[in-house]
Specification:
GO molecular function: oxidoreductase activity
CATH architecture: 3-Layer(aba) Sandwich
CATH superfamily: NADH Oxidase
Shape: globular
Cofactor: FMN
Low-confidence stretches: none
Helix content: 40-55%
Pfam families: Nitroreductase (PF00881)
Number of helices: 7
Strand content: 15-25%
Bound molecules: flavin mononucleotide
Organism: Formimonas warabiya
CATH class: Alpha Beta
Number of strands: 4
Order of helices and strands: HHEHHEHEHHE
Largest sheet: 4 strands, antiparallel
Family: Belongs to the nitroreductase family.
Mean pLDDT: 97
Structural class: alpha+beta
Distance between the termini: 25 Å
């Protein structure tokens, strides 16, 4: 099997990370892969925030916890109470992708960029996991203040985020693929 297909088939979401930080050149390669994603009319409408500062990671975690605790959603409240709470699994690098709201397809552009970054990380032996929490968190008052503090420009909407780091353990086995999701018309 060719290397690219093998990389796609063997990537898994990783939920346990070493605390050792990634090398700058590895992060740069991941970011370059993200920025080479296709985008509607080549607008490259993404804005990518890389967080590696322990202080900022703690701040993001604290804001997520506070938002989860008052979400009114039972399972989020339960998660928020956990002593070891971290929606990004204590990964040392957290990447947030936003998209220019007025672009043609910011959600699609940004998702492809993030997808490329997950695959690029895997090709370098680095674990990753898409983290949905920020989409909800950024819609709250606390989250909007955090978005500002992170330097995300006005007019950019949340697309997705992902944890990145060296794996602390084995990759899980892939879930079986659903049947009947493809229809080929010849
Ligand atoms: C849009 C999206 C949101 C996701 N959000 C989360 C999340 O918040 N937390 C998490 O642990 N995994 C999250 N995941 C990862 C999925 O759970 C994972 O991709 C799926 O279970 C398949 O496993 P695999 O990535 O190992 O193939 C998300 C994935 C996508 C595409």
């Amino acid at each position: 099997m060719n290397e690219t297909l093998y990389n796609i088939l063997t990537r898994r979401s990783i939920r346990q990370y070493q605390q050792k930080q990634l090398k700058d050149e590895e992060v740069q390669s991941i970011l370059e892969a993200g920025q080479f994603a296709p985008s509607a009319m080549n607008q490259q409408s993404w804005h990518i925030t890389v967080v590696q500062s322990k202080e900022m990671l703690q701040k993001i975690n604290g804001t997520c916890r506070a938002v989860f605790l008052k979400s009114g959603v039972k399972n989020m409240e339960e998660r928020g109470k956990a002593e070891n709470f971290s929606p990004f699994y204590h990964a040392p690098t957290f990447i947030i992708v936003c998209g220019e709201a007025n672009a043609i397809a910011p959600q699609n552009d940004g998702s492809l960029a993030l997808g490329n970054m997950l695959l690029a990380a895997h090709s370098l032996g680095i674990g990753s996991c898409w983290i949905h929490a920020m989409n909800y968190v950024f819609s709250t008052e606390e989250g909007k203040a955090l978005k500002k503090e992170l330097g995300i420009p006005e007019g950019y909407v949340s697309v997705g985020a992902a944890a990145f780091g060296y794996k602390a353990g084995e990759s899980p086995a892939p879930a079986p693929r659903k049947e009947g999701t493809v229809h080929i018309i010849k």
